[in-house]
Design brief:
GO terms for molecular function: mycothiol-dependent formaldehyde dehydrogenase activity; zinc ion binding. The chain contains eleven helices and 18 strands. By secondary structure, the protein is of the alpha/beta class. The strands form three sheets. Strands 3, 5, 6, 9, 10, 17 and 18 form a seven-stranded mixed β-sheet that branches. The chain has a six-stranded parallel β-sheet with strand order 13-12-11-14-15-16, with helices on both faces. A five-stranded mixed β-sheet has the order 7-2-1-4-8, with no helix packed on it. Strand 11, helix 5 and strand 12 form a beta-alpha-beta unit.
Length: 365
């Protein structure tokens, strides 16, 4: 029978998110109902609420989540009832041209649930990133569920579902940071701080965190940054000079831009060493444009990369990173700077503007 639960929705552009009843249909053959235990409050959810993604309202918000499988469709083989899982929005199809070429991190046909959840009046909901996890339970495709160790706390494990994975993957996967390399990270919010942690995990010996916030610079140091730079009063050239001073006069091997505005990207471009790598992991607004001298693009060599979801493969990366956390080698708990319940999600979304938290997590007790 269909199931009625509480969920947080956005009815219209820039209107407050609200907690209301939603209906979850019986799962299709490859669908799974997951009881949500924790879901991180991410900037992407704010973008959905404010119309910055698309206009397919109403949205069921939330996507950075962990929970337990409660019900499965009759053809599900990937998970079983009772499994503890982290939800993901890259459930690779295995058949598209990207998967066929052996680069499934660029899958063009990722799986989602076969049918929508609805409001009480039958209005179909669009789940954020195909998940919709600011709810007591949600409906997803079985491949959107990745089993991880039962020992992990839900509010910590769920962070791998988006922001923390994006930052870790920007360093580990996209930037391919090597032992002994130097890394600079511009912007030390959740994603940028995770990039610092990823650079440390990869064996970088010089890790430079850049931000305008003293709180975020401190967070970067706690996660392993060997140096920090307060950029609030510095020009681009001054920032580049400081990065070069900390890297033998050359610039960093990898510069990760977690802010994604033209000014920070230009800084990243010039703050890297010759033949260094620039990784864009922040998400720019649609109206932004970038101008660089083409001769500089040619003459500096190296690689300019974009990192989408940290180029992760959930089935490979989530269990691995969860195990590192449980071994004390990856301080994921440092990213949880507060918790709330579903009724507090709207306030938590608004607090993102203040920039004082890495992650507030909505927890279902």
């Amino acid at each position: 029978m269909p199931r009625t639960v509480q969920g947080v929705i956005a009815r219209a552009e820039k209107q407050p998110a609200e907690l209301t009843e939603i209906t979850i249909p019986d799962p299709g053959p490859h669908d799974v109902i997951v009881d949500i235990e924790a879901c991180g409050v991410c900037h992407t959810d704010m973008a959905y609420r404010d119309g910055g993604i698309n206009d397919e309202f109403p949205f069921l918000l939330g996507h950075e989540a962990a929970g337990r499988v409660a019900e499965i469709g009759d053809a599900v083989t990937h998970v079983a009832v009772g499994d503890f899982v982290v939800l993901n929005w890259r459930a690779v199809c295995g058949e598209c041209r990207a998967c066929a070429k052996g680069v499934p991190q660029y899958c063009f046909a990722t799986h989602n649930a076969s049918q929508p959840m609805t409001l009480a009046d039958g209005t179909a909901l669009t789940p954020a990133l195909g998940i919709g996890a600011f709810a007591e339970a949600t409906l997803v495709h079985e491949k959107q569920c990745t089993r991880v160790s039962e020992e992990a706390k839900p509010e910590v494990a769920g962070l791998l579902g988006c922001g923390v994975m994006a930052g870790l993957g920007a360093a580990l996967n996209t930037g391919a940071v090597q032992r002994g390399e130097s890394v600079a990270v511009i912007g030390l919010g959740c994603v940028g701080s995770a990039a610092v942690a990823g650079a440390v995990l990869a064996g970088a010996t010089t890790v430079i965190g850049l931000d305008i916030s003293a709180e975020k610079l401190e967070a970067g140091r706690e996660l392993g940054a060997t140096h920090t730079i307060d950029t609030s009063e510095l020009s681009r050239d001054e920032i580049v000079e400081k990065v070069q001073e900390l890297t033998g006069g050359f610039g960093a091997d990898v510069v990760i831009d977690a802010v994604a505005i033209p000014q920070t990207y230009e800084t990243a471009f010039y703050a890297r060493d010759l033949a260094g790598r620039v990784v864009l992991v922040g998400v720019p607004r649609p109206d932004m444009e970038l101008t660089l001298p083409l001769l500089d693009v040619f003459g500096r060599g190296g690689a300019l990369k974009s990192s989408w979801y940290g180029d992760c493969l959930p089935e490979r990366d989530f269990p691995y990173l969860t195990d590192l956390y449980l071994q004390g080698r990856l301080p994921l708990e440092r990213f949880v700077t507060g918790t709330t319940d579903l009724a507090g999600v709207e306030d938590a979304l608004n607090s993102l503007h203040e920039g004082h938290v890495l992650r507030t997590v909505a927890v279902n007790r």
